[in-house]
Design a protein that fits this description.
With 182 residues, this protein is of the alpha+beta class. The chain has 2 domains: 80 residues, no CATH class; 87 residues, no CATH class. Helices cover 34% and strands 20% of the residues. It is built from 8 helices and 8 strands; from the N terminus they run H-E-H-H-E-E-E-E-H-E-E-H-H-H-E-H. The two termini are 23 Å apart.
């Protein structure tokens, strides 16, 4: 399920937005699915990923308090890098795009607070990437992954002024929730 990245690495490394949160239990914290945790457990990062201090029982990544902010427990502020980059969660790969609940549907949005989005929102590059994401989310493997992990469809309704709705997935929230109970 490899995903092409929209924000270039050099832009990410120079930004001071991602991986930092105002609250310890911020809605913006990513989750690691059981599948992602199991995959990480098979890697050289097993101890780091499986650490009790890194992931909450519900899959949300814990934060570490640092100078008035709450940093992702996998974030290295000295180098502005991710200690598990090669095994980072789906939500981290997707960001600054997010999956959210909107009108009973799973919807793909873009977070307008991202500086790269602010610079590229009206470009052909952005439109091409949005088209790429539409195709990406139509893949059977991605759809099955979301059906197995419906909690990845977040509730960002409190942040609707920071989001731009791009497109709706062809999976309703009811479909996702019913597949979880099967």
């Amino acid at each position: 399920m490899a995903m092409k990245q929209f924000v270039p690495q050099n832009v990410c490394l120079s930004c001071d937005g991602c991986c930092r949160f105002k609250e310890q239990d911020s809605t913006w914290r990513p989750q690691m699915t059981k599948e992602e945790i199991d995959q990480g457990a098979k890697s050289k990062l097993a101890d780091l990923i499986l650490s009790k201090d890194s992931i909450e029982h519900n899959g949300y990544i814990k934060t570490v308090s640092c100078q008035g902010q709450h940093l992702c427990s996998f974030f290295n502020p000295e180098h502005n890098t991710c200690r598990i980059y090669s095994h980072r969660p789906f939500e981290c790969q997707l960001y600054p795009f997010v999956l959210t609940k909107h009108n009973g549907q799973a919807t793909v949005c873009v977070h307008l607070s991202c500086p790269h989005i602010q610079q590229t929102r009206s470009t052909p590059e952005f439109k091409e990437y949005a088209a790429y994401l539409k195709k990406y989310f139509k893949q059977a493997s991605v759809r099955d992954f979301l059906k197995r992990n419906p909690s990845l469809i977040g509730d960002y309704s409190a942040y609707s002024n920071e989001l731009e709705y791009l497109f709706t997935l062809s999976l309703s929230l009811d479909d996702l929730m019913s597949s979880k109970s099967n």
